Each structure stands twice: as structure tokens, then as C-alpha cells.
Amino acid sequence: MLWILLAIVALIIVVTLLLFRVEDLSHLDRHDHPVREGSPSDAHQEVLGRIRELGHSSRGLRGKARLTALRKHMDGLSDGLDLDSEFRKNHSPQGEWVIAPGVDTRRRVLYIHGGAWAAGSPRSHRAITDRLSHLANAAVFAVDYRLMPENRYMDGVRDCRKAYAWMLKHGPDGPGEARFVVVAGDSAGGSHTLGLLAWIRDNGLRQADAAVALSPSTDLTLTAPSNRDNIRTDPLLGPAFGGLSKIPLPVIWWATLAAFRVSPASAVASPVRGDLRNLPPTLIHASDTEMLLDNARRYAAKAQAEGSPVVLHTWPGMVHVWHIFVPLLPEAEEAFEDIREFLQEVEAGHGQQQAQT
Q: Among residues 85, 187, 191, 217, which one is catalytic?
């Protein structure tokens, strides 16, 4: 009987190794990524209070009731803010246009919201999309992609792909070619953003002129050190996902495969494990205290090694996707100014290239 059990265990191990083939990316951890100087502002304490409110909104609830409460709370994150953009519903593809006064609608941003692929919406992230429309002088299309668990992970991926292809030829006022295109997203949406760039390249579509990923997930195998090391310093993701550190990684991989119906080691779920050559200029933001820090570091290091113009800017002590707390948080204002400068540099570079040709 013992030999039979050992044989079964050995078979499971072999199948796991063959199925997932998780490449060791620890060599990417040796790269030096500087962190901005300074310490969190006083407003950061109020942000922490709001995060605690997020946790309280679903306390004591389970299953669908818990998810419903989380979604409702997230949708209220931008309530009460003084936003002067127009928010215009779009039905095919699903989403909303965010149009700041006077922007050039031939300039377009596809925004992919975060929320662990199970929560969030264009409404929940209006603080971000409103600011992006202003600073990019562009119409922002916030795609309302299908969420889990009601839908499959790949349904959401396909929605983002469809939205991008559509946005290249359609603006808020109807058909029309885009002149300048940006893809942006946060957290889970940051993962979709980075995965989308590779898909665009591989399928011969017009590539985005630039991309922005805020605290992105880049590796669902959870092998990056900060997934464990930063549990206690991440007030948002730590309480929600810190418990996963106690579960053996192969068990998590099988559970992810069952829930997502894609391998966590695949490039579509873990962009850092794909081909990162020939990608557009990309800006990544991360906090040095969040669990996804090394997701960002590893992606930036690998993309740079493969010749793509990817840069990572890291803030000290910020919560995961602190950008959503604009205008309350000064560091969020700094982050949006950093995005503005990045996009200006990208456009200046395009202008120089056109002048040389």
C-alpha cells in the first residue's frame, strides 16, 4: 500500500512539473530598482482608514454576498468627487467613454480596471480615468470586461482585445481612426494591459503608442519574493491574499487552473512569462511595500533585457494602486504628473523620429 501511495505522489509531482513548467525567474530579482525618497504624507492615514472600511463592508459575509458587497463598495469609491469629465455609456463593446472638456477625441486611452478579475468597473475607477483624460488630452474608453466567477477569465481577456481593436477605429462620436493610442490599467487590469500589448504585437494590429501599468499583477504562479515578504506591509492585498503563503505553490497552481481555466504559468495569465520583445514604451508604477512589488520589478527587468523600453517608478510606503485616492493623496497627484511627463516624452520621441524620416 505504501508503494502505491508513493507512486501516486510521484505521478502527481511529475504531472505538475510537466503541466506548469514554471521557469525560475529569481535571476531577475538581482536588478537594482531605486525607490523615490520620502515618506508617506499625512493623508495616507486617511487612505488606510478607507481601506479598513472596504474590509468592513464585507465582514461576516460569505460567497456571493461577500463579492456583491465588495463590488458595491468599490463602485462607490469615486462618489462625491468633483469630476468634470463627461461619462458616456457604450454598449458594444461594453464600457464608458470618459471625456474631459476640450480633449482631442482622436487621441484615445483604453483603460482596464483592477479588482482581482472579480470586482471593479468603469464606475469604480472614475477618479483615475477622469484624470487620465485630462493629462493625456484624450478620450478614455474604460472597458467593462466580463468578471469572474460568472464568466471565464478568458472572456475578460477577449473583451479587452475586442475593445482595443474597436477603439482604434471608433471614438466617442462614431467611426474615426485614432491618432494617438495608450493602453493603461491597474492591478488585475495591469495584467490585462501587459498581456494585451503582446497580443497586439503578435496579431499585427497597430501597436499602442504607449502603455501605463499601475501596481500590475504579472505572475500568477506567486513565486515572486514580495508575495510573501510584503504581506504585513500591504494593508489591501495582505489581509485578502496573505493566507495563500501558507499553501504549497503546486496546490495553488492547480486551484488557479481550476478557477481560471488557464495555466498560471501561461503568458496570458502571467505576462512576465511571455515574449517581451518589441513592446511599446511602457511606464510601470509600484509601491515598495505592496505584495506585487516584485511582479513589477521582474517584468521591468525582463522587458529591458529583451530590448523593450519599459521603465519602473517606485513610491515608498504607498498602498496598492494609490492612484485611485486622488485628489486626497499628494502621492497620487505626483504619480499622475509622472504619467503626464512620460506621455510627453513618448510624443517628443515620436516627433523626433518623424523629423528624421
A: 187
